[in-house]
Specification:
Belongs to the 14-3-3 family. InterPro entries: 14-3-3, 14-3-3_CS, 14-3-3_dom_sf, 14-3-3_domain. By secondary structure, the protein is mainly alpha-helical. The chain has 2 domains: 108 residues, 14-3-3 domain (Delta-Endotoxin, domain 1, Up-down Bundle); 118 residues, Delta-Endotoxin, domain 1, CATH 1.20.190. Helix content is 74%, strand content 0%. Helix 7 runs parallel beside helix 9. The termini are close together.
Length: 284
């Protein structure tokens, strides 16, 4: 989770179907490095993932944690978090690039050659982003959700599924978008239903889910009222039970609560008057 931003850009606490991920793996990992990864055992892969994280080489980190996941079995909390951090950074770089290039493309109207170059580059970034998202969704459907034995893990992975379908929805258009949006909403709702009965309102995973689900309503479904009501309910429920917050999760939970409050402030101001600039909400 990053620091709270004071810009009006949206922050996070993240129809194509999950498919064969071979091309994605080859695209983001040099062949020699990939063969070395194949030869490693699980503990070595986890250690290399940690090293790659320290070096900020997130494509390598994701490749290692993908192999750990494909070995089957349930991931430990540490392994689960390493996988999430790796892919969040890998896809986050493409999402950021896509926003920049899309903005440039819109500003080059009337300059045909510049606009064509921007469009082609945007489409290249979109292809990379789709590959990454489908790679993650394949891991979730094939290994992670099915192997999750605890409600916390199930909610974590269903939230992740909602996030990566949401990222696909951000760059989708036409008939394909409707199915992607529906898949994202279903995953978020399934996670939300479990979290309401199995997790404390102050749990950082439940709060992070509420944060990202509200961002989905605001940005993807264009439902500011629903986004605000969901975010406000999550914030109020957590505040009411703040005394139950463990020292271990205090920092994570309070940071997400701050993001929920910031989004509520931003979204409320966006709905007041036609001249208000639409802001992007923070994510987990």
């Amino acid at each position: 989770m990053g620091a709270v931003s004071h810009t009006r850009r949206k922050r996070d606490v993240r129809s194509s179907k999950p498919g064969d991920s071979t091309t994605c793996r080859q695209r983001f990992v040099f062949p020699a490095a990939y063969h070395r990864i194949i030869a490693m055992d699980k503990n070595e892969l986890v250690q290399k993932a940690k090293l790659a994280e320290q070096a900020e080489r997130y494509d390598d980190m994701a490749a290692c944690m993908k192999r750990v996941t494909e070995e089957g079995g349930e991931l430990s909390n540490e392994e689960r978090n390493l996988l999430s951090v790796a892919y969040k950074n890998v896809v986050g770089a493409r999402r950021s690039s896509w926003r920049v290039v899309s903005s440039i493309e819109q500003k080059t109207e009337g300059a045909e050659k510049k606009q064509e170059m921007s469009r082609e580059y945007r489409e290249k970034i979109e292809a990379e982003l789709r590959e990454i998202c489908n790679d993650v969704l394949n891991l979730l459907d094939k290994f992670l959700i099915a192997n999750a034995s605890q409600p916390e893990s199930k909610v974590f992975y269903l939230k992740m599924k909602g996030d990566y379908y949401r990222y696909l929805a951000e760059v989708a258009s036409g008939d394909a978008k409707a199915d992607i949006v529906a898949q994202s909403q279903k995953a978020y709702q399934d996670a939300f239903d479990i979290s309401k009965t199995e997790m404390q309102p102050t749990h950082p995973i439940r709060l992070g889910l509420a944060l990202n689900f509200s961002v989905f309503y605001y940005e993807i479904l264009n439902c500011p009222e629903k986004a605000c009501s969901l975010a406000k309910a999550a914030f109020d429920e957590a505040i009411a039970e703040l005394d139950t917050l463990s020292e271990e999760s205090y920092k994570d939970s309070t940071l997400i609560m701050q993001l929920l409050r910031d989004n509520l402030t931003l979204w409320t101001s966006d709905t007041q008057g036609d001249e208000a600039e639409q802001g992007e909400g923070g994510e987990n």
